[in-house]
């Protein structure tokens, strides 16, 4: 995001960014690859999670929510690709620009919160099984949690819904979408500070810390009470989740903070680095199916069966033990 500073003219450095066709083409190619993987991977995941996986545990409900956000991003990517290939010219109007921008950021932050919810669910089930057992109507709680996450993200991103994010650049004959923002998009610097704090600290750093805490404790507990294969799957799951955070989400959020501060106070820019980080943040929609694979035993079983890789003696082909006593090892056998 660059800042127009309430002027109809942009500085030469900003104008040169929109004339860099090589970067625009590179970003478009990355989006195309992400789009193909997104639609295939998440299409299969949604079918398996909704129609082939039972029972619908809280983790499965969270995974369905995560898949839904990823598929919404996939449906928005063709518009972003067309925008990039047309030289940053947006022709679909301000409302569509605001809606697709909202889809991009909602996907990111709903994904972060959903990963945190999955980690908390596994932490309670494995590290605090007695607390987990006392929670009644866990499916209902998971559904309500998903709605609360969406409500929190949409309330924080409310300025994106109420602001015209398009900007005319007569020098280049183009209209940008969420690439040039007016400084008065928010009424004051304190409003900008609150907006950035909510996005970066509340929707990113706090969930990241909670997720890390949960998986560290899960691995520690499984190392004492579970088989080697169960522990290895838990470690792989933790590594995939942390990879998504560090590769997809961390660069974008930190660059957003640094770029906005530089632009508001020093009239400098990290726009192109931020633009690339936003592109790579979409990779989370390609990595999320790996989270399902390591987090849900039945998802692995159904996927292997669909791909004709399941063997009659495989450890993952054993039945779900619904009627055994509830303890840490049983929960790990069902969900790990």
CATH class: Mainly Alpha
State the major sheet: 2 strands, parallel
What is the name of the CATH topology?
Rhopdopsin 7-helix transmembrane proteins
Strand order of the largest sheet: 1-4
| Alpha carbon gap, first and last residue | 41 Å
Q: What percent of the residues sit in helical stretches (DSSP H or I)?
A: over 70%
Silhouette: globular
Rg result: 22 Å
Binned strand content: under 5%
Can you tell me the number of structural domains? Answer: 1
Q: Mind telling me the CATH superfamily name?
A: Rhodopsin 7-helix transmembrane proteins
Reading the helices and strands in chain order gives EHHHHHHHEEEHHHHHH
Low-confidence stretches: 310-336
Total number of helical segments? 13
* Name given to the CATH architecture: Up-down Bundle
Indicate the structural class: mainly alpha
- Strand segment tally: 4
Mean pLDDT: 80
Pfam family, one: 7tm_1
Membrane topology: Multi-pass membrane protein
GO molecular function: thrombin-activated receptor activity
Subcellular location: Cell membrane
């Amino acid at each position: 995001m660059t800042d127009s500073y309430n002027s109809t003219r942009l500085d030469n450095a900003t104008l040169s960014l929109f004339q860099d066709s090589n970067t625009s083409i590179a970003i478009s190619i990355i989006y195309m690859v992400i789009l193909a993987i997104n639609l295939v991977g998440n299409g299969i995941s949604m079918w398996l999670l909704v129609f082939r996986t039972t029972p619908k545990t809280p983790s499965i409900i969270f995974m369905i929510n995560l898949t839904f956000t990823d598929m919404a991003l996939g449906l928005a990517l063709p518009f972003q690709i067309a925008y990039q290939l047309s030289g940053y010219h947006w022709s679909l109007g301000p409302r569509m620009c605001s809606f697709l921008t909202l889809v991009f950021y909602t996907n990111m932050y709903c994904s972060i919160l959903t990963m945190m919810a999955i980690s908390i669910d596994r932490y309670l089930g494995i590290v605090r099984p007695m607390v987990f057992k006392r929670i009644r109507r866990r499916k209902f709680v998971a559904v309500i949690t998903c709605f609360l996450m969406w409500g929190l993200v949409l309330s924080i991103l409310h300025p994106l819904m109420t602001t015209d994010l398009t900007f005319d650049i007569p020098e280049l004959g183009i209209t940008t979408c969420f690439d040039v923002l007016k400084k008065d998009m928010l009424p004051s610097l304190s409003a900008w500070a609150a907006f950035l704090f909510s996005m970066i600290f509340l929707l990113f750093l706090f969930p990241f810390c909670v997720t890390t805490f949960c998986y560290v404790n899960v691995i520690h507990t499984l190392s004492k009470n579970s088989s080697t294969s169960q522990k290895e799957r838990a470690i792989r799951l933790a590594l995939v989740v942390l990879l998504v955070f560090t590769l997809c989400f961390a660069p974008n959020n930190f660059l957003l903070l640094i770029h906005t501060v530089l632009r508001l106070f020093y009239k400098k820019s990290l726009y192109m680095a931020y633009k690339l980080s936003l592109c790579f943040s979409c990779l989370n929609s390609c990595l999320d199916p790996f989270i399902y694979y390591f987090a849900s035993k039945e998802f692995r079983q159904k996927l292997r069966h669909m791909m004709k890789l399941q063997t009659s003696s495989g450890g993952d082909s054993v039945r779900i033990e619904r009627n055994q006593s509830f303890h840490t090892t049983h929960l790990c056998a069902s969900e790990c």
